[in-house]
Amino acid sequence: MFRKLPLIGALLFALALPDDAVAQVNPQVLIKTSMGEITLELYPEKAPKSVANFLQYASEGFYSGTIFHRVIGNFMIQGGGHTKEVYSGGAGKKNTRPPIDIESKNGLKNDAGWVAMARTNQPNSATSQFFINTVDNANLNYPSFDGNGYTVFGKVIDGMKTVNAIRAVKTGNVGMFQDVPLEPVTIDSVTLVKPKS
Amino acid sequence: MVNRAPSVSLTNDDRALFCSDIHLHAAEPLLAERFLSELKLHSASVSHLFLLGDIFEAWIGDDTTDPVSLETLRVLVQIARSGVALFVMRGNRDFLIDENKHHGVPGFDWQNHLVLLDDPSVVQLWNERVLIGHGDLYCSDDTAYQHFRSLRNSVAWRAEFMARPLAVRDSLTRHMREQSEREKTVKSSYLVDVNQQTLEADMLREEVRTLIHGHTHRPAHHQWSLADQEMHRWVLPDWQSSPRRGGFLRVSRTASVTEYQRIGDWDQANPST
Questions:
Q1: pLDDT, tens digit, for every residue of A25-68?
Q2: Which of A51, A98, A126, A160 is least enclosed by beta carbons within 10 angstroms?
Q3: 3 state SS for chain B
Q4: How do residues A112-136 score in pLDDT, each as one tens digit?
Q5: pTM score above 0.90
Q6: Which residues of B touch A146 (CB under 8 A)?
C-alpha cells in the first residue's frame, strides 16, 4: 500500500514503526490541544493522499499554534488552518501547500468521532484544515449534497472526552468568522506516535 | 398536465412567501417549533403563502393524531384566518394530504381553509407567469422513483391504502420511509437531482422563464440562457435542526421590478475552508 503514497508519508511511517509492523498497523497521531489530547488513527489504504498530506503538515509542525476556529456542537469541530490572529480581526490563515485530490469515495463515513478534510466548494481543494464529526453527518458522505462529499481519513481512537469538551464551548461571531469559540482552543502539536494496538 | 386553475395572481402591493421540505415530524419538536414560529413571523408581512410540498415527513391521512401535524394545521388555519391567501402543494412525503374525503374517512378539511394546488402549477406574479412545483417530477433520471410516483398517484393504490386503519397506515408509511432512506444512500447524485432537459421542456411548453421548486435539498438560484431568454430556477431550502438550515423565498415588487429575497439559512452547512 505504501507504493501509492508520496515518499514523505511512507518515510514517516517507517520511522515510527518497527519494520515488521509497517504492513499491518495504521499510523496514529496525537493532537495536543489547549483542552486536552486526542489520538487519531489514520487510514492510508482508504485515503492515501489525505493521510500523506496530513502527516506532511504534522511533520513540518504546521499545526502548532493553529486553532479550532469553527465549532458547531451538533455538527463538527474544524481546525488546522487559522491562528489566534482571528481574535484580533485578521484572517490568521497559514500558508499551505497546494490542494490535494478528493478521496471521498472510499467507503469511510462522516460518523461521530471520524475525521475528514475540510475544503472549499471545489472538490479538489483540501489543504491543511480538517474536522472531527461530532454527530453522524450522513449528509457529508459521498455523494453528499454537491455530488462530492468530504474525505474521511481517520478516526478518534482516544480523547473523545476532549472532542466533547471542545464541541461544548461557547461560540459566537469573532472577527470575520462565525461559530468561533469565544475562548481560543489551540492545537499545540500534532505528532506521530507509536500505535497502541 | 400543468395546472392553470385556480388562477393565482399577485398584483399591486402583494407579497408572497414560498417554502418547502420542512419534513415536520413528532420526533423533532424543536424543528417544528422553530418553523412555526418563523412561519408566523414572516407570513405576517405577506399576502400570499405557498407551501410547496413535504411540509410533513409523512402524511398518513387527514385523520392523523400526530401532535406536531395537528399543531401545524392549527397554525395554518390561524394564518389563513388572518387574511393570508394560503396555497399548499403535496410533496412526495405528504402526497396523501386531502385524500380522506375520497374514501369516506373523516378528518381535517383542507379545502375549507386553504387552496390545494396541483403539482406543478403556473401562477401569475405580477407581469410574469411562474412555474411552481414540488420538484420530484423533474428527477426523471430516477426511473424507479418515477414508477412508484405514478403507482402511488393511482386511484387503486390510494383506495387500498386509505382502507386500512390509521395505525396500519402509520406502520406502512414508516416502512416506506425507511426504504426510501436506504435507497437514498446508494443512489447516485444525479438520480436525486433534477434532469435539466425535463424541466426545460416544461418551462418552454408553459412559456415561463422562472421555476420555483424544492425537493432536492440543494438550495440555489440557477440562472442560464435558453432560447435567447434568461431563465431562473429557485430551489427552496430544506429544513433541519442540526446543522441549522431552512428558510423562505420572499417575492415582492418594487418600482416595476420583481425582487426575490432569500430569508433564513439557505446554505448547506459544510466544513468549508
A1: 999 999 999 999 999 999 999 999 999 999 999 999 999 999 99
A2: A98
A3: CCECCCCCEECCCCCEEEECCCCECCCCHHHHHHHHHHHHHHHCCCCEEEEECCCECCCCCCCCCCHHHHHHHHHHHHHHHCCCEEEEECCCCCCCCCCHHHHCCCCCCHHHCCEEECCCEEEEECCEEEEECCCHHHCCCCHHHHHHHHHHCCHHHHHHHHCCCHHHHHHHHHHHHHHHHHHHHHCCHHHHCCCHHHHHHHHHHHCCCEEEECCCCCCEEEEEEECCEEEEEEECCCCECCCCEEEEEEEEEECCEEEEEEEEECCCCCCEC
A4: 999 999 998 889 999 999 999 999 9
A5: no
A6: 218, 268, 270
